[in-house]
Amino acid sequence: MIKVTVWNEGRHEKISEEVRRVYPDGIHGALAAFLGTEEDITVRTATLDDPDCGLPQEVVDDTDVMLWWGHMAHGDVPDEVVERVANAVHAGMGLIVLHSGHHSKVFRRLMGTPCSLGWRENGDMERVWVVDPAHPITQGIDRYFELPHVETYAEPFSVPEPEKLLFIGSYEGGEVFRSGCLWRRGHGTVFYFQPGHETFPIYYEPAVQTVIKNAVRYCAPVIRQPITCPHIEKI
Ligand code: ZN
């Protein structure tokens, strides 16, 4: 079984009726609902306002793959929680960073760059193109899928060169964006996936769910072993 922790900031849902209409159980609830129906996945959820952000050491240690959604309160995540999650990735935990999580402390900590981008919130259509049809994360998706209304994200996306580019999004305005990117950090795999604005029902889209389920399986740890700096004897 792959043990997944869905972390959601959870603040938009508390203050906005519009967001609650789209995600009555929270964005974490919507993500956990479709992941929880998979036979090889167990899911728990955690939010910013839970004690210790819902991510005490024992929860992080018991997580194979973490999903991260945040937007308006990135700065409220304590640095010690960020360090705990980053260390887990280095030791082998998978991390899937969704949408506005591009500016989360943990993603910027792991990338080491500003992770900024251009954006426009007018509900344009996005066509998400598969770059690598042979990759495990793109299985079940044809050449592309369409999302009727999204927040436009645009290049330049100030991240390190992805080790694997899996999806490119194109928008009605002609913008393009690297919508699905993979990196290794230590023993862990980090996947950034762009769809998922809080006022659009994007996490109910079958293609988006397919990609996230594929990514959970792909990002599951191969090993879980903290990186140390040992003195070694000559063999
Ligand atoms: Zn957004």
**What fraction of the residues are assigned to beta strands by DSSP?**
25-35%
Strand order, largest beta sheet? 2-1-3-4-9-8-7-5-6
Which structural class should the secondary elements be placed in?
alpha/beta
Helical content class? 25-40%
Low-confidence stretches: none
Write down the overall geometry.
globular
Bound chemical compounds: zinc ion
Instruction: Characterize the main sheet.
Output: 9 strands, mixed
Order of helices and strands, N to C?
EHHHEHEHEHEEEEEH
- The total beta strand count reads 9
Distance between the termini: 38 Å
Query: On the 0-100 scale, what is the average pLDDT?
Result: 98
Helix tally equals 7
Q: From the alpha-carbon coordinates, what is the Rg to the nearest angstrom?
A: 17 Å
Structure keywords:
235 residues; alpha/beta; 9-stranded mixed beta sheet; 25% helix; binds zinc ion
Chart the SSEs and their pairings:
Layout: E1 2-8, H1 12-15, H2 17-22, H3 26-35, E2 41-47, H4 57-61, E3 65-69, H5 79-91, E4 94-98, H6 105-111, E5 118-130, E6 144-154, E7 164-171, E8 176-185, E9 188-193, H7 206-219
Parallel strand pairs: 1-2, 1-3, 3-4, 4-9
Antiparallel strand pairs: 5-6, 5-7, 7-8, 8-9
Helix pairs in contact: 5-6
Residues 99-100, 151, 197 line the site of zinc ion.
Word description of this protein:
The protein has 235 residues and is α/β, with parallel strands linked by helices. It has seven helices and nine strands. A nine-stranded mixed β-sheet has the order 2-1-3-4-9-8-7-5-6. The longest helix is centred in the C-terminal third of the chain and has 14 residues, at 206-219. It starts with a strand and ends in a 16-residue tail after the last helix. The mean pLDDT is 98. The structure holds zinc ion. Residues 99-100, 151, 197 line the site of zinc ion.
